[in-house]
Amino acid sequence: MAMTFAILLLAEHKDVQDRVRTEVNAVMEKNGGKLTMTALQNLSYLERCLKETMRLYPSVLLITRTLVEDVMLKSYLVPAGVELYIDILSLHKNPEFWPNPEVFDPDRFLPELVQNRHPFAYIPFSAGSRNCIGQRFAMMELKTVIGTLVHNFCLEPIDYLKDCRCVVDLIIRIGQPMRVKFVPV
């Protein structure tokens, strides 16, 4: 679903899409017109866009963890063995970590802003020792597909995310067709 949401967000934010296209074109030019592994590592703005997409629309909304030791939360004792439910969507939209949390802003992921943010304020692939083993592959795949799309097409919205009805299941998904026009560059 991250790819779908990224396409929709880029279509709706032409300025961001244009900046991604400029970055992709420059990187591809330096790499013989290809999105090689090295080229993908140099797509920092595209990566920020994808991270912001997954902040706004995490694929998994909830993760669980079982406490292995007692934890004090203020004056309340949470005993070992309790199963905790972590609401990723609420965490990703918490204004304590994300000013204007509903706004699509890839620059939230500038290195100087990331280093000052709590390490668990952003967990689209879960966190800790049980995080997603495929997260690096997923990011490479997203960069490859989205980079190729914006290199070859201008994305124009037909349907808008504000009109989207999301369905919450094991993952978040879109409950109706969402259309984007692909205009060759």
Automatic annotation (TrEMBL):
Heme binds at residue 132. The keyword Protein biosynthesis does not apply. It comes from the Eukaryota. One of its GO terms (molecular function) is heme binding. It holds the Pfam family p450. InterPro entries: Cyt_P450, Cyt_P450_CS, Cyt_P450_E_grp-I, Cyt_P450_sf, Cytochrome_P450_Monoox. Its cofactor is heme. One of its GO terms (cellular component) is endoplasmic reticulum membrane. Keywords: Endoplasmic reticulum, Heme, Iron, Membrane, Metal-binding, Microsome, Monooxygenase, Oxidoreductase. It is found in: Endoplasmic reticulum membrane; Microsome membrane. PANTHER family: CYTOCHROME P450 4C3-RELATED (PTHR24291:SF189), CYTOCHROME P450 FAMILY 4 (PTHR24291). Belongs to the cytochrome P450 family. This is Cytochrome P450 4C1. It comes from Ooceraea biroi (Clonal raider ant).
